[in-house]
Design brief:
Strands 1-2-3-5-4 form a 5-stranded antiparallel sheet, with helices on both faces. The chain folds into 2 domains: 76 residues, Phosphorylase Kinase, domain 1; 241 residues, Aminoglycoside phosphotransferase (APH), C-terminal lobe (Aminoglycoside 3'-phosphotransferase, Chain: A, domain 2, Alpha-Beta Complex). The longest helix is centred in the last third of the chain and has 26 residues. It is built from 12 helices and 9 strands. The N and C termini lie far apart (44 Å). 50% of the residues lie in helices and 13% in strands. With 345 residues, it is of the alpha+beta class. Strand 1 and strand 2 form a beta hairpin. The mean pLDDT is 94.
Length: 345
């Protein structure tokens, strides 16, 4: 669909956006298969138009789930209109500042933003499942989905990116402890979770966090969302900050006279393991298959975090050894590129 068609579709629903006095700008948006446009009419009115394909059914869920979040009191962009037949969605423009863009801010400022994000996700976790009713979401986390995430890591990170031979790859992926973890995670009570709760999916406006890219919402474990944010390779929070924020999140349940979910303690490291394996699989797939090479630069940090988690999980020592080998090779390659870049032309 051409830009003038997008403007015409917008003007049809929002007459103030007359095509002859409206500007449209395409926005870059990570690894998504969607296209994002900012549509602006002077002096200050704007909205975001999302164009999505039909290959991923979750995209059509964005509008109804956005309305649902607002009904819960969770901050997120308002949904103005959606056209599922054409794959178009018009939402509130909250600007371009995400949590990731504050990653180098002093901790008093950055910590306040993280706590704001945790308050929003707590509301989803604590109230979402009870209020969901018949609203459709993506299929819930099960043993098979956890196993799929593990396989995604072995295929696209260790296999596709690090070229690990089929024999060692098969032995590592068949470690009994991995199957046990998938089964244990699937046995915990499930809550409604975001599924991709990381720094680039949290917008910041006036010091408050707003959740975006929530169309993959499903029943799962709060620990998975919490680990997704605290072990986010895009930011690489240190252990002290992660511990502080984890304690803050647990305190939100107690302040609301609720018992924190069981998985927050017993299963947190397992959830972090799953999320980091999923992220590393995504980086390899997006970087090498989808040719979005910028994702490959996040592999060293993600491997470092994965190794940290693996050291706390017995029964995965062979996998830890392989991850440490890959991490050493990755860091060596990074240093090599740095030396080459610093050489005089």
């Amino acid at each position: 669909m051409l830009l003038d068609q997008l403007l015409a579709e917008t003007a049809h629903r929002f007459p103030q956006y007359e095509p002859d006095r409206t500007w449209i700008t395409k926005l870059e948006k990570g690894g998504s298969d969607r296209e994002f446009y900012r549509i602006r009419v002077e002096p200050s009115s704007s909205l975001i138009l999302v164009r999505y394909g039909k290959s991923r059914l979750e995209n059509a869920l964005h509008g109804p789930l956005g309305d649902f979040l607002h009904s819960l009191g969770v901050r997120s962009p308002r949904i103005y209109s959606q056209d599922p037949l054409q794959g178009l969605l018009w939402i509130e423009d909250l600007g371009d500042s995400d949590l990731w863009s504050y990653r180098n801010a002093p901790w008093p400022e950055l910590g306040s933003l993280y706590r704001s994000a945790l308050r929003e996700i707590f509301t989803l976790h604590a109230k979402g499942e009870r209020r969901l009713g018949g609203l459709r979401t993506e299929p819930p986390f099960t043993r098979d989905l956890y196993a799929w995430e593990q396989g995604y890591f072995f295929r696209n990170c260790l296999g596709r990116f690090f070229h690990l031979d089929a024999g060692p790859l098969s032995r590592l992926s068949a470690l009994p402890r991995l199957t046990w973890i998938a089964e244990r995670l699937a046995a915990f009570p499930r809550h409604l979770i975001h599924r991709d709760f990381q720094s680039k999916n949290v917008l910041i406006r006036a010091g408050q966090a707003y959740l975006i890219d929530f169309q993959g919402m499903r029943l799962g474990l709060p620990a998975y969302d919490l680990a997704s944010l605290l072990y986010d390779p895009y930011v690489g929070l240190d252990a002290e900050r992660r511990t502080e924020l984890r304690s803050y999140y647990a305190s939100l349940w107690r302040e609301d006279s609720l018992r924190p979910p069981e998985d927050l303690e017993e299963a947190f490291d397992w959830a972090a393991l799953q999320r980091l394996m999923q992220a590393l699989g995504a980086y390899g797939y997006l970087g090498l298959v989808k040719k979005k090479e910028e994702f490959l630069s996040h592999i060293p940090v993600a491997l470092r975090l994965l190794a940290e988690v693996l050291r706390r999980i017995p029964g995965l020592e062979p996998l830890l050894a392989q991850v440490e080998l890959c991490l050493a090779a990755s860091e060596q390659e990074t240093r090599k590129r740095g030396r080459e870049a610093s050489r005089p032309a």
